[in-house]
Amino acid sequence: MRRIFFMALAWSLSILYACAQDITVENIWKEHQFAPKGVAGYTSMPNGEEYAKIGSTGIELYSFKTGEKTGTPLDVATLELLSGNKLKLRHINDFSFSDNAQKILLATRMESIYRRSTKAYYYIFDIKNRTLTPLADTNLAPQSFATFSPDAEKAGFVRDNNLYYKDLKTDAEVKVTADGRTNAILNGIADWVYEEELDMAQCFTWSPDGSKLAYLRFDESNVKEFSMTEWGSLYPAEYRYKYPKAGEDNSLVEVHIYDCSSKFDRKLEFADFTTSYFPRIYWLPGNSTRLITLKLNRHQNRLEFISYNMADNSYATLFTDENEKWLSVSDNYFFLDDKTVLLCSERSGFNHIYRVTLGGEVKPLTGGNWEVAEICAVDKAKGLIYYLSNESAVLNRDLYVIDLAGKKKKMLSSGSGWNSALFSSNAKYYRNIYSSLNTPPIYTIHESSGKELRVLENNDKLVKNMQLYHFIPREFFSFTTEEGIQLNGWMLKPGSFSIAKKYPVLMYVYGGPGSQEVQNSFRGVYDLAWYQLLAQKGYIVVCVDGRGTAGRGDAFKKCIYQQMGKYEALDQIAAARYLKTLSYVDSNRLGIWGWSFGGYLSALTKFTSGNLFKMAISVAPVTNWRYYDNIYTERFMRTPQENPTGYDNNSPITHAAGLQGSYLIVHGTADDNVHFQNAMDLAASLNLADKQYDQFFYPNKNHFIMGGNTRCHLYRKLTDFIIKKL
Question: Which fold would CATH assign to domain 474-725?
């Protein structure tokens, strides 16, 4: 608390200094003067007492308890010697240890495929024997998701859409599947929509004894392709990939178990597999004959835990979670043994922790009109659960501990601000990241009791830069709409703010289902620096979370069901009307902007509110939910065939004729997520309605519109548009 007080005092005093420097777009996006420092390479060792990271001398080990360096399993000299000087420390993009901590997988020449998938060339370093060998032939294609078996005798990976493993005792490469083919059959790797919307890329897992591989096989032959032009050559190329839009066919997904000894591949049989998703597969702890498959129906409101027993070839549904509207799949499933699992569910109307006896009792361990964000760790030996929740306040996130009976609950953090805890493998220690609305991230190491052991990074350099460039603290506020809904927001005022003056206001919106932009954390630092730039130019910047956002239970979040966009836009309109009542707001100079879902909302809000907003900006917006992928869209809207009016009534394209004032749309032509088609079809509708607007497109850039000078160019464009139009 003392740190926050002195930061606030420093900011207050800085207003008095005439030498405060003005922020430029170049400061933000070229010089990166406001980028917070993080703590890279923090990886818990299997023993839970040490963590590993890439340091100046190689892959280094440190004690959680003391912070002292305890060893260097792979040093720079050894790496260079064993690789014939072909591999340097800087070439290692990622690493992982085997469960016995005797081998290290090294990823080199790593490149992204989509958001969560990568491919690389992997090497295996044997710590005891001091040998370095390629996982696979480096003359072949790179590998994805290289993973040691629990006994460290094998390593599985995907190459060219087929699943393989390397027998580390015989050095033999075994091909588990042979039918992998781009845009047709994928083995052990997710298709585009599973990766994007179900948060999964690696789709294989080793059994506890290392004798079997369970994996998913995707047949996307009947999924329609989307194509994007790649500009820059005499004859532009075309990139094609499978992208199932709302209401369209998905991949047919199968669950397989491969026995490494017998080489027998068994396909599991599930009812309704053609209309279901299989978002997770788990081996039960210590049991290499029972696999749990999660099966989710297409409406995404029924999730089944189905057990398959290899001993007798039997199936059983052990637990079913249901929701009237939708439920979300997570990685918050902790199997205590082969009969009990801890999980989070919204069945009470708020997200809470439950202890489920598979095939039996479902017992709530937390409860109340607040929400659990995630289970961080489970200490099975002590019977303790560590989790994050907003019990102290909707805008906060605190770390708590509770026992397996749902008793002895204790807050381990301060009760003010936003915490993110990453625990050691034995749950004895954790690294915490703390921030608040105006406090940059602070990285610390703690004992599981909450006791702080040391600070890893406090971002003092960023704090000094914020003072030097005259950053102004943001403020929280709330108001009640005409519908009686209380909404939360934050506001950034100019440093020279006077209650006697009137200021233009730029509203930022995201607003997607389950998101939260108004939180007591220092998030979005690059955009925050840009908002400080705008504040220096005399603008007030505001962000309001409307209905559909997270932290306030199902009733607040899921009222948008089958009419996504309607209430979200109404709440941004209500926020603008509230701001107009403030004496210091220039009611004729309100603007709104957003990216992705926020770009969609800024367009819909602008087009349906008459002349309320003087200007709006949409970056990479969805303009018609018929164009977006089916897993995300149908979760909230069902299919266009079932709900055509829900899609059409809340599309900016439908309301293009309502545009008044200034509007800018920006999009990357190689956006694999929100296709460039969205911008082009909105432009066509605006043209048809005889509306004038501005447009700007970035060739060969994806949804993030970055790389090289791109972000600097983009934000200079946005800044100029705001200054001219607002």
Answer: Rossmann fold (3.40.50)
